[in-house]
Design a protein that fits this description.
alpha/beta, single chain, Arc Repressor Mutant, subunit A, Rossmann fold, elongated, 8 helices, OmpR/PhoB-type_DNA-bd, transcription cis-regulatory region binding, 2 domains
Length: 218
């Protein structure tokens, strides 16, 4: 998934991003509300991890603007305020979930994954297609019963292809979901990752190239 972490404490922001990247998510960072709104305007995020107390533009106002603009991304709001009124207030602004500081990173990662599922059409917890079984929560892939060890990027690309249900996924869509904002849109990273993925999934070939359009698992 593509995740935006908005947190004004750089060390905490970096720690959250690193943890989520271990779960194969593509993660961008913003340290204030104004930058967050700029990122959200140009990128298609699945989940926004949003600190409530932000400089320049308050987290509440970021959430309000997302709702008013019809942004599809789910919002996990972070705050040091643990009172019931604070939690209710955050959710009433349009946040989808609320997590108080300090928090455990595994819990945050689990909440992000759960929200990400809700940001898309409903999909089964375990994806199966063409002899492939992919478990997002365990980050495991099997092909015809054989375990397939994948890198983070290979797993992210395969997840997008499996979620498409046989439909074609363009290189641009894969770049959007599996890489962060620093990825060069003219890079051959997608093509190279698909090539490695094909080799690891082994014969018979399962990832098709649709010339000029993208890739699919029929």
């Amino acid at each position: 998934m593509r995740v935006l972490v908005v947190e004004d404490e750089p060390m905490l922001a970096d720690a959250i991003a690193e943890w989520l990247r271990e779960d194969t998510h593509a993660v961008d960072l913003a340290h204030d509300g104004e930058t967050a709104l700029e990122r959200i305007a140009v990128n298609d995020y699945d989940v926004v991890v949003l600190d409530r107390d932000l400089p320049r533009v308050h987290g509440d106002d970021v959430c309000r603007e997302m709702v008013a603009s019809g942004v599809d991304a789910r919002v996990l709001m972070l705050t040091a305020a643990a009172q019931l009124d604070d939690r209710v207030g955050g959710l009433s602004l349009g946040a989808d979930d609320y997590l108080t500081k300090p928090f455990a990173f595994p819990e945050l990662a689990a909440r992000v994954l759960a929200l990400g599922r809700r940001s898309r059409p409903a999909a089964p917890p375990v994806l199966r297609r063409a002899g492939i079984t992919l478990d997002p929560s365990r980050r495991e892939v099997f092909r015809n019963g054989r375990f397939v060890p994948l890198s983070k990027k290979e797993f992210a690309v395969l997840t997008e292809l499996m979620r498409a249900g046989g439909g074609v996924v363009s290189s641009e869509q894969l770049l959007e979901k599996a890489w962060d904002e620093h990825a060069d849109p003219f890079t051959g990273a997608v093509r190279l990752t698909v090539l490695k993925l094909r080799r690891k999934l082994a014969d018979p070939p399962v990832v098709e190239t649709v010339p000029g359009v993208g890739y699919r698992i029929p």
